[in-house]
Amino acid sequence: MEQALSRQSEIGVLVLDAELRVRRAMLDAEQFQDLVADPGVRFPDLVASEDSEDIAENLRHVLENGRPMLFRTQRIRDTTTVVSLFALRLEGDGDGSLFLCLVDVTANSYARERLDLLFRAAESIGESLDVLTTARQIADVFVPAAADYASVSLADELFSGGEPPTRDAEKVRLRRAAVASAGMAAGPPYVQPGEKVPPIPAMPDRERYRAGEVLVVPDRPAMLDVVSGDVDLLSRLAPSGGRSLLAVTLTARGAILGSLEIWRGEGAPPFDDNDARVLREIASRGALSIDNARRFTRESTEALRLQQSLLPSLSQGTSVRTAARYLAASASGGVGGDWYDVVPLSSTRTGLVVGDVVGHGVRAAAMMGRMRTAVQTLADLDLAPDELLTHLDDLVMRLALENDNAALGSTCLFAVYDPVARSCAMASAGHPPPVLVRPDGRAELVPMSVGPLLGVGGLPFEVTQIVLEPRSTLAFYTDGLVEPSAADLYAGMERLREELSGLGEHDDLEEAADRVVEVLAPSGEDGETNLRDDATVMLARVRATSPDDTQAWEFPAREAAVAEAREKANATLERWQAPMETAITTELVVSELVTNAVRYGGGEVLGLRLIRDGRTLVCEVSDASSTSPHLKRARTEDEGGRGLFIVASVSTRWGVRFTATGKTIWTEIRS
């Protein structure tokens, strides 16, 4: 059998003694050119060093029990040769000996390893949409499967969200992004993660390298040639333990994204053309994944920047103090359409609104901006919460027709707080109810009827009216805040209520908002949240207008009411010690508005109300007419028609709101 096998060039035969030394070797020189098995050499010393003890033990077991070893795949030391081993004990040999049959399976082994490496790359690279995470995944693919060390450097622009340089760019600035090591020495002065990579001197194959060709450097002297003999530069570019290098530029869609380098150390076979082909395939896949992550990051950043520019910078009014927090979703979720707003209304009232637009990205952020603008416009008309949501519902349906159903299913909650009446009217379009925290710290979910989502159309919204104690706090939020912290939405709402319980009337709202976010949407070790959807919370603490700061009267709708109204207003302003200029302006406004109410109001009774709000004086005149007044310029020869024009000229701002019994014209006069 020994002679028959030895005639097969692709099969080698070795006979070992009891000490596992070679007695005879029959190896085809051309087939097994990397394997030198001289007599007396221990066979375990011929295989890869990490396998030496294991194969020695297996061969001793064959000698001891006579059970053959079948089809063991083994790499030969310091070579690229891989063989399949068959070992059996030779009977009748007093000293004990082994018969080894070797089949060269280098090509098959390499193909299998190549497929395994490519499979690992396909499985892991690109599963993240974060640029640095993708860079780490690329480096991890090669170590330790194909290299002892790997590093990925990225163009400087990718760290700041900019556009990468094109292939014809004269200068490309790189920064080390990720490394992977199997124990190779790679300390300073070698470039560490986060540090800038010094430029490589011009070389003959530079353009081919920048175009994506693999640079193969077999040994340390060749590396020195690449850097034109600059020893200091070599110490920056090559790890001290590196002996063989493959390097390739990461390019995608005509841009240079960075570079990938893999190294082998002392004792490992140098890289060859087969390794270069695998590197190029994985580098191509990795570059495309990095570019996808870069583009996603850029879009997410732009969407977040757009959304934050559209969110309000909350101003603190006299009737409501507010604090708000917005958290974007994790990178995989993308920026969503959460939004909130505080809208100053007439007569010291305040509109409080929170909403959630369906979708993610720039489109959702832009739609959120349109929704917020629409709510501000509708709120300026002094519409009741249910009427405002009805108009907003119509708008969403129109936008859906224009933008492929965009914004359908969005939610919104609109509330109006009146500090004089100490009441809050609110209506919801599919949005969860707010949490009410009373001054003593008791917290409860506001019982209210939640209407249909925006865009459904044809269904009414119901107004919920509640009376608020002074210094009560309302907590508005989106589902993204409460859903991740509990099994379902309602459990999350209850957890938010529990977290807000105990919030005192003098506790800082900014600190309270931070605490809510930390508990319900905690950040990980990297400082990022794992939110699937963006989250918003807005806390609003209300105050009440003192009875001493408001005064209201009713007068019969006749000419005598003008003088009587002026008299009542002057007496009140004198008691409030209003500045002379404010008193004179208010007297003029009262005269003109009451005169108009008498002439055009159409009812039997008109009302006058004054509200003192810091340095602002609010004057309201109500009548039974539902006709909206129009500001116009009277001609020189006209005897009337100047009243409303005069009011608008002397007031800081003015407007009209309609009620169930007519309308109210209001003005604000600031001293």
TrEMBL record:
Superkingdom in the source lineage = Bacteria
So what does this thing catalyse? O-phospho-L-seryl-[protein] + H2O = L-seryl-[protein] + phosphate
Report the GO molecular function annotations.
ATP binding; kinase activity; metal ion binding; protein serine/threonine phosphatase activity
Q: Which SUPFAM superfamilies match?
A: ATPase domain of HSP90 chaperone/DNA topoisomerase II/histidine kinase, GAF domain-like, PP2C-like
* Documented EC number(s): 3.1.3.16
Cross-referenced InterPro entries: Bact_Sigma-Reg (IPR052016), GAF (IPR003018), GAF-like_dom_sf (IPR029016), HATPase_C_sf (IPR036890), HATPase_dom (IPR003594), PPM-type-like_dom_sf (IPR036457), PPM-type_phosphatase-like_dom (IPR001932)
Q: What's in the keyword line of the UniProt record?
A: ATP-binding, Hydrolase, Kinase, Magnesium, Manganese, Metal-binding, Nucleotide-binding, Phosphoprotein, Protein phosphatase, Transferase
Query: What positions does the domain PPM-type phosphatase occupy?
Result: 323-542
Pfam families in alphabetical order:
GAF, HATPase_c_2, SpoIIE
State its role. Primarily acts as an independent SigF regulator that is sensitive to the osmosensory signal, mediating the cross talk of PknD with the SigF regulon. Possesses both phosphatase and kinase activities. The kinase domain functions as a classic anti-sigma factor-like kinase to phosphorylate the anti-anti-sigma factor domain at the canonical regulatory site, and the phosphatase domain antagonizes this activity.
Kindly provide the name given to this protein in its UniProt entry.
protein-serine/threonine phosphatase
Q: Which organism is it from?
A: Actinacidiphila rubida
